């Protein structure tokens, strides 16, 4: 349903057998309301957000409830920087600095809902103390 589907509706039907005639039902009022986004969750491929250095990671954002249109934005470590838009964020050739907490924010233009953070771990990160790879 869309917000524009709100209105008054009735239906007509053929009634009777001997003295058949068209009958119209009583008018019914239908009101469609906006549902703010909620139940935002994240998933990762590979699972649990653990990705090898140099590989790719795909994060997906899902919304349990909400009427659209919905917009998505991706954020890292609580920074205000926008990483991407859309329900998926693809990180190619992940590096040492890509580990951390990622969040997805969903907005319907009036309300905003945010996912819990997803911890991404890049396996095989350089050990800053050793200057090389683990």
The domain count comes to 2
Task: Using the coordinates shown, work out and report the CATH topology of the largest domain.
Answer: Immunoglobulin-like
Note the overall shape. Answer: elongated
- The named CATH superfamily of the largest domain: Immunoglobulins
User: How confident overall, as mean pLDDT?
Assistant: 85
Number of helices: 0
Structural class based on helices, strands and sheet pairing = mainly beta
Percentage beta strand:
over 45%
What is the CATH class of the largest domain? Mainly Beta
- CATH architectural type of the largest domain: Sandwich
Cα gyration radius (Å): 25 Å
Low-confidence runs: 130-134
Strand count: 15
Task: Give structural notes.
By secondary structure, this protein is mostly beta strands. The chain folds into two domains: 1-33, no CATH class; 38-123, Sandwich (Immunoglobulin-like), CATH 2.60.40.10. Helix content is 0%, strand content 50%. It is built from no helices and 15 strands. It has strands at 7-9, 12-15, 21-24, 28-30, 38-45, 50-52, 57-65, 71-76, 84-85, 88-91, 100-107, 112-114, 118-123, 126-127, 132-133. Strands 6, 8, 9, 11, 12 and 13 form a six-stranded mixed sheet that branches. Mean pLDDT is 85; it is low at 130-134.
Topology:
Elements: E1 7-9, E2 12-15, E3 21-24, E4 28-30, E5 38-45, E6 50-52, E7 57-65, E8 71-76, E9 84-85, E10 88-91, E11 100-107, E12 112-114, E13 118-123, E14 126-127, E15 132-133
Parallel strand pairs: 6-13
Antiparallel strand pairs: 1-4, 2-3, 5-7, 7-10, 8-9, 8-11, 11-12, 11-13, 14-15
InterPro entries: Ig-like_dom, Ig-like_dom_sf, Ig-like_fold, Ig_sub, Ig_sub2
Pfam family, one: Ig_3
Domain Ig-like: 37-121
């Amino acid at each position: 349903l869309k917000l524009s589907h709100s209105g008054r509706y009735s239906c007509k039907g053929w009634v009777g057998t001997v003295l058949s005639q068209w009958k119209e039902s009583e008018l019914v009022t239908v009101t469609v309301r906006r549902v703010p986004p909620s139940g935002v969750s994240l998933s990762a491929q590979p699972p649990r957000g653990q990705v090898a250095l140099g590989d790719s990671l795909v994060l997906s954002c899902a919304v349990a409830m909400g009427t659209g249109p919905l917009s998505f934005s991706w954020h890292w470590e609580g920074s205000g920087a926008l990483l991407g838009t859309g329900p998926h964020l693809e990180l190619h050739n992940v590096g040492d600095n890509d580990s951390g907490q990622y969040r997805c924010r969903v907005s319907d233009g009036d309300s905003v809902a945010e996912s819990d953070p997803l911890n991404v771990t890049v396996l095989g990160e350089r050990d800053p103390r050793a200057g090389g790879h683990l």
